[in-house]
Amino acid sequence: MQAHEIAVTPPTVRMDDPVSKAVQLMVVNRLPGLVVVDDDDRPIAVLPGTQVLRLTIPESYRDDPALVRTVDEIHADLFWHGPGKLTVGDCLPTPVAKPTTVAPDATLLEVATVMANKRSPLIAVVDRDGRLIGAVTLERLLTSLAVAGPND
Question: Is the pTM of this model over 0.85?
Answer without folding.
Answer: no
